[in-house]
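Appendix B. One record, verbatim.
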Amino acid sequence: MNHVNPASELSFSTFRVEILKCMQIDRIIYGRSILSSKLRNKQQKSVNGNGVTHPILMQNIPGKCGPDRVGDIITDILSRYNPLILVIAEARSDVVASKTPAGYTHISGTLKWRKNPRVSMLIQDSVKYKQEDLKLDVPTVCVSLDGWRICGFYREWNRDGLEGTDAVPDQLERLQGLVKALEKSKKKGRTLALGDMNVDLYNLTDHQKKLEDLRYEIEEKLIAGGWLQMIKDPTRSQKGCQDSCIDHIYATHYTHVDYVENLNVSGTDHNLVGAHLQFDAPVFVPQSFPYRNIDGIPDDKFEQEFLDSDISEVYNCEDPDLCCEILEFKIKRVMRRLAPERIITTRPNYAPWMNSSLKKDTARRDRLRRKAVRTKSKEDWAIFRLVQKEVSRKKIEAKNEFIMRDLETGSSKEKWSKIQKLSKYQSRKKGSKDVGEMEIVNDENQKMTDPQVLSNFMNDYFKSKVSKLQADLRPDPAEAVKYTEEFLLNKKVPERCFHPVTRKEVKKLLRKLKNTGAVGRDGIPTKVLKRYCHVIGPPLTHLINLCLKKQVYPALWKIGLIRPLPKGGDLSQPKSWRPIVLNCVISKILEGVINQQLREHLSSNSLYSPSQHAYRRDRSVSSALQDYNTIQADMRNRGLVVCLLTTDVSAGFNLVSKQILIPKLRKLGLDHSACGLLEDYLTHRKTKTCIGGCISGEVELTTGVGEGSCLGPVCFSCSMCCISRVAAITVKRMEAEHNIKTVEAYTDEFADDASGILGARTEEELQLAIDIMIEEFKRYYSINGLCLNVKKCSILIHQVSPKKTDLYCGERIPENKEQNCIRLLGLQIDKDLTYDVHCRKVIGGCYEKLAAIKKLVGYLPLKDLIRVCEALILSCVEWGAEIWLQNKKNQVKIQRLINSVMRTILQKSLKDRMRVEEMLDQVNWLNSTNLAKRAQLCSLRRIVYKRVAPFAFEVINADFTETRYNLREENGVRGVRCRWRKQTRFVRQSMLLSSINTYNDHNMMISGKYFEDDVAFRLYVTEKLKTVFGNRNL
């Protein structure tokens, strides 16, 4: 038998590897006959093996290439190589940014004294990196990731394109700055620098001989200093010129480079060069997610499987918890059988328009270029140029046709998603970044990255955040109920119970569910419940009626799944993450049944706080702002100094206690059974946190109204039903304690954002009223178990005469001094009510969106562009326009914005000298003045017919009773008047009086005319405003 000596085999293998390393290093450093890139790749593979590497690529795109050509080259490279990083040289940074596809982040280069330098970097979205600014006279871009520094550069012939700066000494000075920066980077660790050096180290043409000083600087400082230039073959081939190697890759730790790329894929005169690096750890994770093919389930198959699973068990069960468990199990069982869960890993396709024909044309173009480079024939170069232009034209046409065809398909939601990706528009709302990819620092300054550890830590943190607030509170249920009794004084409240529901009502609620991809603890998606509501509806109806009868809310539906989303700031801190609670979708049906019956009871008996504008039909943020605008105008019209006091409640929904809420609900007319069900709904609620696919343990909540549930808002409204008593008590205390009877006070609420409005004859009286109202707000929140954040409370003063003294919100310290501008429900209100700050913010945000819309002009037809601009820009302008846009200066500024938008979508410039009136007619828009008037008229109609703003309705002439403005009457309202007999400049500037004057204008012909609904009224007003006031530039 032959025996093999393992030790000798191992020694031979190790010896062979060491020999190859020595040969490589010897040839690279000490020999001038340097290895070609192809031979070096082959040898390096034998040393490194077949480990996982990531490509770092660089492509020079000549400045003469247009934006479409730049985008074509970028998508070709990304779709072919899917690189970790792609450096683009010579093309302007802003052009590259506009052509960066989804899935990659654009990093602009840096350069002294100039914006948009001619170098930039594209890096995959999932990569964690840190950008570094080298601040050189050479365009550079640098990032660090996983122990490597990746530097991209473009050594220009002259500085910033200036004449007289292309002399060799000037070039040498700029190069020396780049070399020094690379030497510093080498001291910090592994570095890879790649870019267009415009210096050939190996082929000395007549032009290159002039750059001997630059070549000496590179060889003596970089190469002799331990850097390796990885590219040895020519990288640039041009008609009539000798091939040259001017695109370089310099590496400090070249044994970590698996192999290099040097080939032409763009059809330009520069090759694509790059290196495949070996990293110590994975620098990005492929996007994977669980998927069920619900759409692939035949309807009859699901119904058959569901009914064959002995559904009678649900109907025979009398225990709500067990019945819920059985129903949930049967639905999930059918899903597992017909649509099993699979894990899908996606790879982005950056050029989906590249069909087989285009790929063949591209391959033919590349073959012709290689032939022209090899033969150096003028005829071959001419043939290549013709084919290159034809291929580029075909690619651009195919891309535009694909995008236009793709945008025409799908639902409106899918279309909007495509538009956002194409235009790279990002909403100002916080993104949905996965915290599992982040590092969270705990109280002991330890970094946590493991998803399971993070999920448990964040779950405990969210609970402890509420517990800390509870520790400082002193709730008083008896006093809280007393407030409710005072609120219900002289009101007859009938007793109400929750009645059973029919199958038809349950199916209607199932069909109304929103199609979202988010699922709760049970994993049952909305699509299943909506699509098979005819099958799931009957047993679900039985379960809901059983819960109503037994006064039990299923325990499984009390478990919420938290997915943290970033709020902003330092994301390594747990306080920078907001807990988003996902409840079981099927539980929303029972919540919807209770919510519907409870809201009906509160509305029909006027049990809401009269100044509450959230979670109520026909009321909104706009109605709250309209009430405030009317109240301050009315007070100032009578010579009062007005104060707006804004408050902030910490974790309001999470602090509501059932010990306070249930007695309040009994006072509001709910019987024993209804209160029993709601009490069980609020008891033993639990949460689990999911991060990176890992789920934490359960944590029980002792307070809260069920964040993320349909029933939570109406329960919170019941808890805050008597907050208007704060204003009444403030007035009483001013009279009792200071003998001042002229102070007026109101409250204005939207959910947990409550504001106080005070009016007084003098500033001294107003300061007393402010102090009392803050005390009353603090007392009200305290006895109801809520926490008022005094530090975030602020005041804004509207004067009627010159200011005499400063007013304070609470303690007399500079931080509590009155503000010049305050944000109320999204509207920036200044003390002079010019709304200049809000106007600037609107214009700034709209121009950001317009920059994104410009990228759609070549792909969308005009009618779709108009709709996109209406959704993104005009919607921002018209929000609250009845209040802030009536200022003439703001109207002029907004008209300039509208003109810019119209020129963009109509592809007109100022040189075309197209009249604004013609553009408005072409897009069918109103000018800014008419936009304000239309917003005012529509708001007034809602105030008159629907009483959306109660105080504004009181100001309107009381002669108009309900029968006079009933929508069904043919004659409608014949005129609107207000009770302001004395009309100072304060009411003339108010929203209400301006809208009344326009409404009563006989040329508008609104009075006495019947309109079927708000839409018909808006269309009529739009046409009338054009006719009566004109629709021209301001």
